[in-house]
């Protein structure tokens, strides 16, 4: 790896702990004004506790001040909406030149392994990886899933390994039973996707299990910004990811910080 690639990876995955708390707030690119992200006010309060912010170029330019010293993982796949007929048919929506102008630390692209449009998304990922290698920007492959695709270790191992074999530098995937199999069969770091909103205690338990199974961190969105206390929740997640707290200890952090 060249110096630039190593430097950007070290901004995403913190060398001190070897872990990361990525805050995913890119939902608007296909869901519009998602609950909790209507105006990004909650995101501003979460910035001091996030290691990395994952979002779209429009949100970055309109909501985040350039003075904020936070690494950006830029969402570069899209093209469909939640109300459309082809939700899983994403393509490239950002040029590498614009990503460079935004000084991003990473590029995020979703692949739809097993869907009707699998080939389109895999070729799109390969193109983005070519850009990343040329300009020293790591690529986060997101193993998106649809209703017809499972979330078991066999499927997620397949999707994660394919992403790594195509050249992705980090893979974002969902937690499942036997998650250690997904981690062990993927040669690049894995971050756990938070997924849909669940109770805080359950989300912290899922985070703990993922870290214990070998994940380098989380890329969590709704389970933080839709929490009854987002700032308390992200601090609790950090306790698990960076401070080796158990799920029970992290929930105590949440209870202690809640409302303050």
Give a verbal description of the structure.
By secondary structure, the protein is α/β, with parallel strands linked by helices. It has one domain (3-228): Aldolase class I (TIM Barrel, Alpha-Beta Barrel). Helix content is 43%, strand content 16%. The protein has twelve helices and ten strands. The chain has helices at residues 3-12, 28-31, 41-46, 57-63, 96-101, 118-135, 153-166, 179-184, 200-212, 222-225, 230-243, 247-257, and strands spanning 20-24, 52-55, 72-75, 77-78, 91-92, 106-111, 139-143, 170-174, 190-193, 217-220. An eight-stranded parallel barrel has the order 1-2-3-6-7-8-9-10, surrounded by six helices. The relative contact order is 0.14. The mean pLDDT is 95.
Please describe the topology of this protein.
Elements: H1 3-12, E1 20-24, H2 28-31, H3 41-46, E2 52-55, H4 57-63, E3 72-75, E4 77-78, E5 91-92, H5 96-101, E6 106-111, H6 118-135, E7 139-143, H7 153-166, E8 170-174, H8 179-184, E9 190-193, H9 200-212, E10 217-220, H10 222-225, H11 230-243, H12 247-257
Helix pairs in contact: 9-11, 9-12, 11-12
Any idea what the CATH superfamily is called? Aldolase class I
Q: From the helix content, strand content and strand pairing, which structural class follows?
A: alpha/beta
- End-to-end Cα distance, whole Å, is 43 Å
Give the overall shape, derived from the CA principal axes.
Answer: globular
Model regions low in confidence, pLDDT < 50 over at least 5 residues: none
CATH architecture: Alpha-Beta Barrel
Q: Regarding CATH, which class? A: Alpha Beta
CATH topology: TIM Barrel
Number of helices: 12
Biggest beta-sheet profile: 8 strands, parallel, barrel
Order of helices and strands: HEHHEHEEEHEHEHEHEHEHHH
Give the tally of β-strands.
Answer: 10
Number of domains: 1
β content, as a range?
Answer: 15-25%
> Whole-number average pLDDT?
95
Question: So what's the oligomer here?
Answer: single chain
């Amino acid at each position: 790896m060249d110096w630039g690639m190593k430097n950007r990876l070290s901004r995403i995955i913190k060398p001190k702990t070897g872990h990361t708390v990525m805050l995913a707030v890119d939902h608007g690119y296909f869901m519009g004004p998602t609950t909790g992200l209507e105006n990004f006010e909650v995101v501003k309060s979460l910035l001091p506790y996030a290691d990395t912010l994952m979002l779209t170029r429009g949100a970055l330019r309109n909501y985040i001040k350039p003075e904020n010293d936070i690494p950006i993982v830029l969402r570069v796949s899209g093209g469909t909406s939640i109300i459309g007929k082809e939700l899983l048919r994403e393509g490239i929506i950002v040029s590498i030149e614009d990503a460079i102008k935004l000084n991003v630390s990473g590029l995020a692209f979703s692949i739809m392994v097993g869907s009707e449009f699998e080939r389109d998304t895999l070729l799109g990922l390969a193109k983005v990886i070519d850009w990343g290698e040329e300009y020293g920007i790591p690529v986060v492959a997101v193993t998106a899933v649809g209703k017809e695709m499972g979330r078991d270790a066999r499927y997620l191992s397949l999707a994660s390994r394919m992403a790594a074999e195509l050249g992705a530098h980090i893979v974002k995937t969902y937690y499942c039973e036997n998650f250690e199999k997904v981690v062990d069969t993927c040669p690049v770091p894995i971050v756990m996707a938070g997924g849909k909103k669940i109770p805080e205690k359950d989300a912290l338990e899922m985070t703990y299990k993922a870290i214990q199974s070998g994940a380098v961190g989380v890329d969590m969105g709704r389970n933080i910004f839709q929490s009854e206390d987002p700032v308390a929740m992200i601090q609790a997640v950090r306790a698990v990811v960076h401070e080796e707290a158990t799920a029970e200890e992290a929930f105590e952090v949440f209870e202690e910080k809640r409302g303050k």
